[in-house]
Structures are given as structure tokens and as C-alpha cells.
From TrEMBL:
<protein>
    <submittedName>
        <fullName>FXL18 protein</fullName>
    </submittedName>
</protein>
<dbReference type="InterPro" id="IPR047948">
    <property type="entry name" value="FBXL18_F-box"/>
</dbReference>
<dbReference type="Pfam" id="PF12937">
    <property type="entry name" value="F-box-like"/>
</dbReference>
<dbReference type="InterPro" id="IPR001810">
    <property type="entry name" value="F-box_dom"/>
</dbReference>
<dbReference type="Pfam" id="PF19729">
    <property type="entry name" value="LRR_FBXL18"/>
</dbReference>
<feature type="domain" description="F-box">
    <location>
        <begin position="19"/>
        <end position="66"/>
    </location>
</feature>
<dbReference type="GO" id="GO:0019005">
    <property type="term" value="C:SCF ubiquitin ligase complex"/>
</dbReference>
<dbReference type="InterPro" id="IPR032675">
    <property type="entry name" value="LRR_dom_sf"/>
</dbReference>
<dbReference type="InterPro" id="IPR036047">
    <property type="entry name" value="F-box-like_dom_sf"/>
</dbReference>
<dbReference type="GO" id="GO:0031146">
    <property type="term" value="P:SCF-dependent proteasomal ubiquitin-dependent protein catabolic process"/>
</dbReference>
<dbReference type="InterPro" id="IPR045627">
    <property type="entry name" value="FBXL18_LRR"/>
</dbReference>
<dbReference type="InterPro" id="IPR001611">
    <property type="entry name" value="Leu-rich_rpt"/>
</dbReference>
């Protein structure tokens, strides 16, 4: 029974109020509106407002799939109540990255008797909790978990193992050498493995990649269709993944259609892996492929592999030439309309006919790029970053002009030097990177765009941005850029200078991005000719859907020349959720945080700045005003004492009201930085704290 004050009624008539009664909308429209509300709010709050919403909020279309993975306000009590109220109705439950919930919260999942898909990646869970939970989920077919130090497969009950034997899809993140639950999953069709094992323990001891005694059960791959492995840097991860691959090399599954291994650095081919690849060449036809560069470079493997209707290729960091790409992968430029995602990041010769006598900075062959565009006309995700793709002076053959034909692109990553308008800049003297631009001494009115002698509307990059109406994710990254904060290593103190071709790219090109109305994610790194940052204001005003913004090393390194424009831009970014800034000498003071406070949707902030400064009072005030912020990472030039005091103050003041709060304030160049980084939740570390290109990083829809 609802008390009178809980009914949504109005004392005014529609004519008097001048509005529309929400409850007069059809059920279909109301259900669509309610689908944008977090499930915890629907079940625990909204449904208690009136009788009609009480019924609609429990509609199967809203309760069968429950997504808690970025519901940072959910706590253990809400999880308990949610499972009690609608547990039996839930078929898919995603709790990925809920690192703040205690392991006891997982116990409440036992009430979801009809659960088919369960994602617990990033959650605290022990072997015993996992056993208890899975023992009751007889209908489970898809599972994602972490395997942490201390995991013991012998603690899994027979009922739990019976559930695992029916699981068809498994995503497993390993923080310790182990098979995890893979040997129990005898019906696997999709296996995703993320190797995050460190080479050294906290005490400094070297770790071994050998599996613990009792975990040598053989994985069952006979039904496998998808095999994916992503390795973090480190030799232990390589050792462990070889143990997983050993079984595949003995007998390749007949139905295998996607084989993907993402490995940074050098991952040498062995006899076992060569046998595996030879077997794949003989017995399977693939739809998705990614291999370590050492397995492809110098081999004739691609000539022998057979493809069916490929939708994803990644040749990241391979020395594959454009000629090899067209002939061996794309059948001489024949129709490849099925390909929707292509990662050529770091393939420095992929747009040249051959690589033997070619320098990385030589002009690309526009015919190869045109063949690529014509045969792969349905590409939605394309990554060409981390290479020097220099267009020739010939009119009509510029990289931007050719890419403009790909009308279906959703995400695009390009090197800065590739967007330079060669013809327009032929008569212009090059910008000297070691000379401070004269305009820095002048006062510039923010909002009035100033460009360097170039009419923006005539540039090829301006035309490209205007021709991609559906683009959601854009990355423009300097070909020689490297973040000051790499993974598992000390901070980088020196960076390589930008490419000569890139030194004319600045405010005009940034302003061109403002045409992309539906842009949701933007990364700009190492744009040397940023003089005022006025183009950022255009983006803030016109890209109202922007949710993620990452800026790194813009303009001259000795001075943050775009600070005023950035602050003006932030005042318009009402939908911005993630902000990452990497810039030497960045001053995070009161004015900056006052501007940032206009970003009412902001949830995560990361600042990386060598010799940068921060104002503790301004940070505290910002956190008090921005109630949605749950992650604050700052790696600056301040002393360890200042950093520790601020971090303790933030945690003490805001942790109680924000259960998901994660705060790391630490000197960037401190020797213990890697130890601090290892405690950051993987969700934040992978998505925002560490810089990387994310376009076509994985196949689309790899996991639900």
C-alpha cells in the first residue's frame, strides 16, 4: 500500500502547470525511459514512488539483465536487498570492477537461481566463496572471475565443478601462476585469458611461471571456438601462457575461428607454438587473428593461414609491409566487406609496398591505402597510430582524403604527422620546436579562435572530420609519444621530440574535431604547435556527448600554454566522466579545479605531471563539490609528505559516503611508484591511469 504522499500526482491541471504528466505516457515509452536508470535505483527507490512505477520497475525487460559494473554508489546492503527482491528474475549479472564490495556480497548471488551469465572480474572472491556461489547456479553458461594468490582449486565442491562443466564461456584474469578453473570447464567454446602476474613479489623475490603442484590438470579445448590471451609485460606471463598453449599445440580444435594473443615486447616463437600455427594453417579457417610480432615477422605464416569471413585483424607492431598486407591477408585487394575492425598500430611499413630498403619516415603509397579502403569498406574501427604515415604532395591522394570514404567508422586512431596538410604547408616555414612561439607573450581572448596562417576549412583533416558523422572515438597521438608513466617500470624522465611533419599541427586541427557532433571519447597527445588551445573550446561547445578526454604533451613542454582554453572548455563538458591530463609543469590550482567543478558528471580524474604542482585546499574543495568523483589519481612533482597528507585527508573525508573511492596521490619520479601502481584497481589502471591506444585493441563484442 502506498501512502498518499508517495503517489505522483499534481494539484494543478495540465493547463495550469503548462507541463505533461509523466504517468500519462504509454508503458512502452516509460519502460524505455526507465531503462536508462540504474537497476539499484529502480528496485530500491523508483518503484516505491507510485503503483504504476512499482509494476513497471519490475518488468522483465528491466530486471533480467542487471549491470552493477559502474554503479559506484552500490554498497553491500544494496546488493543484499537487490538480490532479495529480484534475484530469481536475474539472468545476466555484471559486477565487473566492483572492487569495493566485500567478498561476503558475492554470497547473495546464490539467490539468482536462474543466472545464465555472471561477471565477477575485479571482485574480491576466495575459492570458498566461489565454490558456494557456483554450486547453486545450475543454469550458468558464461563466467568471468579473477584468480588471485591463494586460489586453491581443491576447495571447489563437486557441485561447483558440475556447474563449471556446463560453462561455455570463461573470462579469467590471472594474478598468480595457475590454471584457475579452466580444467573444470570441460565444455568451453570461448576462453579469454588476461595475464597480470608480476615478476616480483612485494618482498622483492622473483616469481616462477611454473604452475603449483596439483594444478597440472589438462584444459579441455576440444570444443573451443575463441581463444584470446592478453599479456601484461613480464616474463612470468609468457611462461604461464605457454602452458595454456601447450595443449592447443597437441590438438587444434576443429571449430576454432578466432585465435588472438596480445603480447607486449618480445614474445619468442617456440617449437610448440610453431606446431600450433602449422596445425591451424592446415585444419581451421579463421574469422579473427592477432599474433605476437615475433611470430609473424619474417615468416610466411600469413601466406598459409586460411580465413572465412574475417571481422577482426590485429598486426600491431609487426613489420608487415603494405604489399604483404594486401596480397597475403586481403587476397590481392579483393572484397573484404566482413572486416569491421583493423589494428595496424605500430606497423611502420604497412602502407608501403615493401619494407626492405624503406625508412620509417618515407611517404606512404596511396595505392595501398586506397586498396585497403576499397576492399574493407565496412570498417568501423581502424588504428593506424604509432607510425609515420606521411602523405605525398600529390593532390587527392592524402591519407585523410582516402579515409574519408570509410563512412561507417566509429573509432579511429591516427598519428599526428599523418593529418598534416602537405600541400597547404609547402610554402610555410617549419615551426622550430625549440623556439617559444611569439604569440605566447600576447593576451588571447578565449573563445576567439586563433590559427597559424592556415584557413581551417580548406584542410584535408577538416574535411575528414566533417565526413565521419558516426565517429564516437578519436585518437590523434604523436608517433614518437611515450607516456611518462609506463607499466611496471620507473617513470620516464625524457621523451623523444615530435616528428618534423607533426610540427605544423595545432589549434586549427583541434578546432576541426568540433564538427564530430557525437564524439564520446577523445585522445590528443604530442601536438607541438598548440599555441593557445582555442580549438579545445570549439570541442567543448560542439561535442556535447563527450565522456572521456585525454590530453598529453600539448604545445611547448616548458609551459602549459593551453590552460586558459582548457578551463573554458571544461565549463561546457556536462557529460564528461573521465579526464586524464599528462603535461610537465602542470599547475593544479584553485582556478583549474573551479573550472573542473562545472563537469557535474565527472567520475574519474588522473593527472600525470613531471615537476607539476597541486594545491591541497583546492583539491579538497573540488572533491567536496563534485559528489560523483570516485577516482582521483595525481602523480606530480610534490614531495612525498605533501602527497601522503592530501591522500589521507581525501580518504578520511569522503570514503564513508563514496564506497568506491580510490585515491592515489604520489610523486611521479619516486622509486616506489611501481609498488603504488600495483594496488590500483585494474578497472581504473587499464581504462584511464595508464596511457595507451584503445582503438581496435580487442575484437568488438569480445565479452558481453
Amino acid at each position: 500500500v502506498f501512502p498518499p504522499h508517495q503517489e505522483i500526482v499534481s494539484g494543478e491541471s495540465e493547463e495550469e502547470s503548462g507541463g505533461v504528466n509523466l504517468m500519462e505516457f504509454s508503458d512502452e515509452i516509460l519502460l524505455h525511459i526507465l531503462s536508462y536508470v540504474p537497476c539499484t535505483d529502480l528496485v530500491l527507490n523508483v518503484r516505491r514512488t507510485c503503483r504504476k512505477l512499482a509494476t513497471l520497475c519490475l518488468d522483465k525487460s528491466l530486471t533480467q539483465t542487471v549491470l552493477l559494473q559502474k554503479d559506484y554508489k552500490v554498497n553491500k546492503d544494496k546488493v543484499k536487498q537487490l538480490m532479495r527482491d529480484i534475484g530469481k528474475e536475474i539472468y545476466q549479472l555484471n559486477m565487473a570492477g566492483c572492487y569495493w564490495l566485500p567478498s561476503s556480497s558475492i554470497d547473495h548471488i546464490t539467490q539468482c537461481k536462474n543466472l545464465v551469465k555472471l561477471n565477477l572480474s575485479g571482485c574480491r572472491i576466495t575459492s570458498l566463496h566461489l565454490s558456494k556461489t557456483l554450486s547453486t547456479l545450475q543454469h550458468l553458461r558464461s563466467l568471468a572471475i579473477d584468480v588471485n594468490p591463494g586460489f586453491d582449486a581443491s576447495q571447489l565442491s563437486s557441485e561447483c565443478k558440475a556447474t563449471l562443466s556446463r560453462v561455455l564461456e570463461l573470462k579469467q584474469t590471472l594474478y598468480t601462476p595457475s590454471y584457475g578453473v579452466v580444467p573444470c570447464c570441460t565444455s568451453l567454446e570461448k576462453l579469454l585469458l588476461y595475464f597480470e602476474i608480476l615478476d616480483h613479489s612485494r618482498e622483492g623475490f622473483m616469481l616462477s611461471g611454473q604452475l603449483m603442484v596439483g594444478e597440472s590438470n589438462v584444459p579441455h579445448y576440444q570444443n573451443l571456438r575463441v581463444f584470446y590471451a592478453r599479456l601484461a609485460p613480464g616474463y612470468v606471463n609468457q611462461e604461464v601462457v605457454r602452458l595454456y598453449l601447450a595443449v592447443l599445440s597437441d590438438r587444434t580444435p576443429e571449430n576454432l575461428h578466432a585465435f588472438l594473443i596480445s603480447a607486449p615486447g618480445s614474445f619468442a616463437e617456440t617449437g610448440a607454438t610453431k606446431n600450433l600455427l602449422d596445425s591451424m594453417a592446415r585444419n581451421v579457417r579463421l574469422d579473427a587473428l592477432q599474433l605476437p610480432k615475433a611470430w609473424i615477422n619474417g615468416s610466411g605464416l600469413l601466406q598459409h593461414l586460411k580465413f572465412n569471413n574475417p571481422f577482426y585483424f590485429s598486426f600491431s607492431r609487426c613489420t608487415l609491409s603494405g604489399g604483404q598486407l594486401i596480397q597475403r591477408v586481403m587476397n590481392g585487394g579483393k572484397d573484404l566487406k566482413s572486416l569491421t575492425s583493423l589494428n595496424l598500430s605500430g606497423c611502420i611499413h604497412c602502407l608501403a609496398p615493401e619494407s626492405l630498403f624503406r625508412k620509417a619516415e618515407d611517404d606512404i603509397d596511396s595505392n595501398i591505402l586506397e586498396s585497403l579502403v576499397v576492399s574493407c569498406c565496412n570498417l568501423r574501427h581502424l588504428n593506424l597510430s604509432a607510425a609515420h604515415h606521411h602523405s605525398s604532395k600529390n593532390i587527392g591522394n592524402h591519407l585523410c582524403q582516402l579515409l574519408a570514404r570509410l563512412k561507417h567508422l566509429l573509432s579511429l586512431a591516427l598519428p599526428v604527422c599523418s593529418i598534416t596538410d602537405v600541400a597547404a604547408n609547402m610554402e610555410k616555414p617549419p615551426v622550430q620546436s625549440n623556439v617559444m612561439p611569439q604569440t605566447l607573450g600576447k593576451k588571447v581572448r578565449i573563445g576567439v579562435q586563433t590559427y597559424s596562417n592556415q584557413k581551417p576549412h580548406s584542410s584535408v583533416f577538416w574535411a575528414l572530420m566533417g565526413s565521419l558523422p558516426f565517429l564516437e572515438n578519436l585518437e590523434i597521438i604523436g608517433s614518437s609519444f611515450s607516456s611518462a608513466m609506463p607499466r611496471n617500470e620507473p617513470a620516464i624522465r625524457n621523451s623523444l621530440p615530435p616528428c618534423i611533419r607533426a610540427q605544423s599541427v595545432g589549434d586549427a586541427e583541434v578546432a576541426a574535431i568540433g564538427q564530430v557532433t557525437y564524439l564520446q571519447s577523445l585522445t590528443l597527445a604530442q601536438l607541438p604547435n598548440i599555441l593557445t588551445g582555442s580549438g579545445l573550446v570549439s570541442i567543448g561547445l560542439q561535442c556535447q556527448h563527450l565522456r572521456t578526454l585525454s590530453l598529453a604533451n600539448l604545445g611547448m613542454m616548458g609551459n602549459v600554454v593551453y590552460m586558459s582554453a582548457l578551463m573554458d572548455m571544461l565549463k561546457h563538458c556536462k557529460c564528461l566522466r573521465d579526464l586524464r591530463l599528462e603535461q610537465p609543469y602542470f599547475s593544479a590550482g584553485a582556478q583549474f579545479f573551479q573550472a573542473l567543478s562545472h563537469c557535474s558528471s565527472l567520475q574519474r580524474l588522473c593527472i600525470v605531471s613531471r615537476s607539476g604542482t597541486l594545491q591541497s585546499d583546492a583539491v579538497m574543495s573540488f572533491m567536496a563539490n563534485c559528489l560523483e568523483v570516485i577516482m582521483c589519481h595525481m602523480f606530480m612533482g610534490e614531495s612525498l609528505t605533501v602527497c601522503k597528507n592530501l591522500q589521507q585527508s581525501l580518504v578520511r573525508s569522503f570514503q564513508a559516503d563514496r564506497p568506491a573511492l580510490n585515491v592515489v596521490i604520489f610523486p611521479l619520479l619516486h622509486e616506489d611508484l611501481t609498488e603504488v601502481i600495483r594496488d590500483v584497481p585494474m578497472r581504473h589502471l587499464d581504462e584511464i591511469t595508464l596511457f595507451k591506444s584503445r582503438v581496435a585493441e580487442e575484437p568488438p563484442n569480445l565479452w558481453w
